[in-house]
């Protein structure tokens, strides 16, 4: 490749490497919306101008990531003289014809699928705006896989988690992608309340045939908060038959709930068994990396000028959900607008006391589930064999222990027969990188994690 071509695509190449070196949450916040907008030479030194969507992101990249960027850029280009200049999008010297995301007009709250039906989608609930971190990475990969091939993989898809963790955002992101890439498909996105109200209206107006045709002719049906049909006998009966009709015709069914199928009181066993026949995945409580990404995103959205240590302090607080983060940022924003000084003590008073998270999954279940998936024994996976299949199963199990249980590398190593912590670090990093690009590893982790539910 010529030097000029390397120079033109340098920023994209750097981003590809950075994506494997930093957390998904950090990458999404700091780099996802940057782009190379100009190249130049000055006294024989190539200069790359990179546009950033805000001055806050520009300053953070320059202060936190520039040494790594310089190192990767010089290696890829084969020159020690490359220079990077970061500018805010509105100040870019030569922006491309494609407008920056922050300058694009807001999309309509509704999209039209086949036959002109309107589906109500929040324009901000896309994959691009979803902060990805260890607590939701598996769910996001599953959702993206379904969006690319609805009806053929992970059907049905049952997504559950606590309030405000992003379930609605994620399934609407699936809907956005499907309506964009497969506009001929008939897609219905509803809440369980809307499904119930439609049914009541159809009975009252004696239009059951129209009701059944509406739902059973869908190519993709997304139902939010399915737990609210529990105990409603006639609604459950109609949903059961709707589900069967769609499933038998290879149509995609996606539902969300606040609990796994087995824990929804009042839900019939025959519906539970249908849900468990597909992929059941949870969005876990927010981990540090995801919290930091969301906090930073909210700070940028509200155009706040907070010191890095303030963002760090907010991010270390174990919020239960995104809405709590939004509430805290709004309080801080209000104080700043009132010309109040926001110091560490003020932030601590806004956040309140600390809490702890709990996990129902233990290391024995993870190891057993991993061994079963790879068709080996628990003794094999905890042993010293370096056979490729066993080694891969062991690395996947270590990755899941780190992700699901937040165990230390030393604790994981001790459980796996006294492995050195450096061996565990290598295994976790390897699987984390493979998970992004390797379909076999993605399927293994999704299947194993799905089997841990309940």
What is the annotated CATH architecture of the largest domain? 3-Layer(aba) Sandwich
How many domains? The number is 4
Proportion of strand residues? 5-15%
Superfamily (CATH H level) name of the largest domain: P-loop containing nucleotide triphosphate hydrolases
The largest beta-sheet arranges its strands as 7-8-9-6-10
Task: Spell out the helices and strands N to C.
Answer: HHHEEHEEEHEHEHHEHEHEHHHHHHHHHH
Main beta-sheet annotation: 5 strands, parallel
CATH class of the largest domain: Alpha Beta
What do these coordinates show?
The chain has helices at 3-8, 10-21, 24-30, 55-77, 137-148, 167-181, 192-204, 208-216, 233-248, 269-276, 288-301, 308-315, 322-337, 344-351, 363-373, 378-382, 388-405, 409-415, 421-437, 439-452; strands at 35-42, 45-52, 83-88, 110-112, 118-120, 157-161, 187-191, 220-224, 252-257, 279-283. By secondary structure, it is α/β, with parallel strands linked by helices. It has four domains: 3-91, DnaA, N-terminal domain (GMP Synthetase, Chain A, domain 3); 110-283, P-loop containing nucleotide triphosphate hydrolases (Rossmann fold); 289-351, Orthogonal Bundle (Helicase, Ruva Protein, domain 3); 363-452, DnaA protein, C-terminal DNA-binding domain (Chromosomal Replication Initiator Protein Dnaa, Chain: A), CATH 1.10.1750.10. Strand 8, helix 9 (233-248) and strand 9 (252-257) form a beta-alpha-beta unit. Helix 19 (421-437) crosses helix 20 (439-452). It is globular. It starts with a helix and ends with a helix.
């Amino acid at each position: 490749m010529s030097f000029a071509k390397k120079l033109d695509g340098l920023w994209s190449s750097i981003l590809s490497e950075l994506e494997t070196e930093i957390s998904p949450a950090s990458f999404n916040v700091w780099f996802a919306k940057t782009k190379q907008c100009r190249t130049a030479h000055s006294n024989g030194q190539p200069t790359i101008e990179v546009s950033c969507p805000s001055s806050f992101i520009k300053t953070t990249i320059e202060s936190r990531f520039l040494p790594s960027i310089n190192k990767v850029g010089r290696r890829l280009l084969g020159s020690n003289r490359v220079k990077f200049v970061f500018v805010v999008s509105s100040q870019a010297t030569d922006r491309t014809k494609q407008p920056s995301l922050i300058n694009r007009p807001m999309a309509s709250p509704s999209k039209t699928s086949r036959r002109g039906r309107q589906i109500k989608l929040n324009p901000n609930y896309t994959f691009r705006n979803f902060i990805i971190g260890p607590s939701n990475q598996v769910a996001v990969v599953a959702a993206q896989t379904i969006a690319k091939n609805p009806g053929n993989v992970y059907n049905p898809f049952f997504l559950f988690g606590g309030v405000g963790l992003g379930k609605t955002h994620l399934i609407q992101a699936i809907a956005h992608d499907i309506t964009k890439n497969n506009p001929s498909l008939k897609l219905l996105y509803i809440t369980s309340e809307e499904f119930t109200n439609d049914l009541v209206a159809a009975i009252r107006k004696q239009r059951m045939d129209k009701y059944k045709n509406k739902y059973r002719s869908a190519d993709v049906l997304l139902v939010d908060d399915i737990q609210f049909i529990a105990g409603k006998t006639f609604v459950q009966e109609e949903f059961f038959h709707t589900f069967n009709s769609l499933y038998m015709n290879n149509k995609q069914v996606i539902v969300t709930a606040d609990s796994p199928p087995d824990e929804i009181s009042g839900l019939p066993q025959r519906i539970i068994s249908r849900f468990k026949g597909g992929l059941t995945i949870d969005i876990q409580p927010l981990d540090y990396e995801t919290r930091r990404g969301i906090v930073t995103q909210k700070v940028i959205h509200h155009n706040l000028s907070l010191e890095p240590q303030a963002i760090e302090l907010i991010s270390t607080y174990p919020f239960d959900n995104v809405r709590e983060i939004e509430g805290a940022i709004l309080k801080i924003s209000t104080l700043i607008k009132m010309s109040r000084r926001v110091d560490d003590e003020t932030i601590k008073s806004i956040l309140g006391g600390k809490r702890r998270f709990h996990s129902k999954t233990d290391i024995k279940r993870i190891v057993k589930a991993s061994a079963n998936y790879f068709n080996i024994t628990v003794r094999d996976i905890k042993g010293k064999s370096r056979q490729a299949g066993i080694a891969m199963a062991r690395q996947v199990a270590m990755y899941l222990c780190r992700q699901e249980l937040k165990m230390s590398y030393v604790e994981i190593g001790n459980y796996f027969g006294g492995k050195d912590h450096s061996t565990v670090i290598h295994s976790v990093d390897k699987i984390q990188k493979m998970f992004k690009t390797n379909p076999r590893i993605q399927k293994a982790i999704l299947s194993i994690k799905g089997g841990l539910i309940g």
